[in-house]
Amino acid sequence: MSIDPVELSRELVAFNTINPPGRELACIKHLENILAASGLATSVHEFAEDRANLIARIGGAGDKPPLCFTGHVDTVPLSNAPWNFDPFAGDIVDGKLYGRGTSDMKCGVAAFVAAICRMAAQLRETSGVVLVITAGEEIGCEGAYRLARAGVLGHAGAIVVAEPTSNRALVGHKGALWLRAIMTGVTAHGSMPHLGVSAAYKAARALTILEKFQFNVAPHQHLGSPTLNVGTVHAGLNVNSVPDRAEIGIDIRSIPGLEHSRISEHLRAELGDDVSLEPIVDVGSVWTDPHHPWIRQVLEVVQVITGEDAGSGPQTAPYFTDASVLTPAFGHPPTIILGPGEAAKAHQTDEYCSVERIEQATSIYSRLAARWCGV
Ligand SMILES: [Zn+2]
Q1: How far is the CA of 120 from the centre of ligand 1 (A)?
Q2: Residue 108 CA to ligand 1 centre (angstroms)
Q3: CA-CA distances (angstroms) from residue 99 to 85, 186, 350, 352?
Q4: Which DSSP string corresponds to 316-332?
Q5: How far apart are the C-alpha atoms of 69 and 339, rounded to whole Å?
Q6: Torsions phi, psi of 38, nearest 5?
Q7: How far apart are the first and last CA of the chain?
Q8: Quick check: 246 and 182 in contact, CB under 8 A?
Q9: CA–centroid distance, residue 118 to ligand 1 (Å)
Q10: 193 CA → ligand 1 middle, Å
Q11: Tell me, what's the pLDDT at 38?
Q12: How many Å lie between the centroid of ligand 1 and the Cα of residue 270?
């Protein structure tokens, strides 16, 4: 079936899938109808009211596992600053398609859906492809985790994550471990602080430790060193009481080889018994050797279509993706992050995606699928 990826991008942008709360179901069903009409076997996996993931497959012949394309349909909220364009209209001005979730990453989803629908008939008797379209990525890959835990993903021999990269092929990204550190005390009237135990002072001691925290690992050759940032600090409810609760939000970005459980243990040892740690987001890093033959093939295809040289050395993404969950769930096949959106425009006011890049991405995905399936 002939699907226009730009028109499909506009249709997807029209669904309000701001997360929270997400409400991705209508958007997912729309995609399911298109994929099913093109002959793919689809399954919708609901995991909460109005929220669902979609898996679509075609082919599956022989021993070679299918190629996986993945993307999410939830978006971040609109910013406080007013938009110059209707964030759900998908207006095209000067070759840019505007709207919330264009770059991140409905245009990427539209591009691989259009690519596969167009060539579906050719893929039927081949190893084929599996499309994994998720909900709830923006808040810690929730949808992908649901699919992995449900055991419905099956196999994949390689993964293309259509997150925004301006159609450059990126071979990895850091992981994220977000923790809530909680300190408790005993409240008392502000005029008699000696009768209480201040959680705020416990938080202050914890902050000093966090500022000096060292991971004690060698940096990754391409992803660099792990980092730790304190993003939030809250203590107390009113000025004239001793606060009995404090919370610190910690954002750790990890590198391959550094287990999150090890980081948590290390932090617990340094922070001591006064601080309890709860995970908020826990997604691992992703890395594929850039010399892997399939990665080299991807780089070749990208260069042919975009005319842009891959540049010197492997490139990596600044953000994490569903690959943190899907790559291990599929048994660590080679994984590339490659999509038409502009990473710099993701989550921004007046987010847009270049129309030309949507067309390019569709061609890139077609060629990758064709090469994978030998058609
Ligand atoms: Zn994204």
Answers
A1: 26
A2: 10
A3: 7, 49, 7, 6
A4: -BSS--THHHHHHHTTS
A5: 11
A6: -90, 0
A7: 17
A8: yes
A9: 25
A10: 47
A11: 97
A12: 34
159: CA distance to ligand 1 center in Å? 15
Report, as an integer, the average pLDDT of 7-18: 98
Of the candidates 212, 200, 280, the residue with the CA atom closest to the CA atom of residue 247: 200
Distance (Å) from CA 119 to ligand 1 centroid: 26
Using the mean position of ligand 1's atoms as its centre, give its distance from the Cα of residue 163 in Å: 5
How far apart are the CA of 370 and the centre of ligand 1, in A? 25
Q: Order the strands of the 92-93 sheet from edge to edge.
A: 92-93, 96-98, 352-354
Mean pLDDT for the stretch of residues 108-114? 98
Task: Give the DSSP H or E segment for 227.
Answer: strand 227-235
Residue 84 corresponds to which tokens in the numbers above?
């110059």
Report how far ligand 1's centroid is from the alpha carbon of 101 (Å). 8
Position 198, amino acid:
S
Nearest to 110 by CA among 38, 31, 167: 31
pLDDT of residue 313: 79
Centre of ligand 1 from the C-alpha of residue 198, in Å: 40
248-266: per-residue pLDDT in tens? 999 999 999 999 999 999 9
Amino acid identity for residue 15 in this structure = F
Q: Give the three-class secondary structure for 13.
A: helix
Distance 361 CA to ligand 1 centre (A): 16
For residues 264 and 249, what is the distance between their CA atoms, to the nearest angstrom? Answer: 14
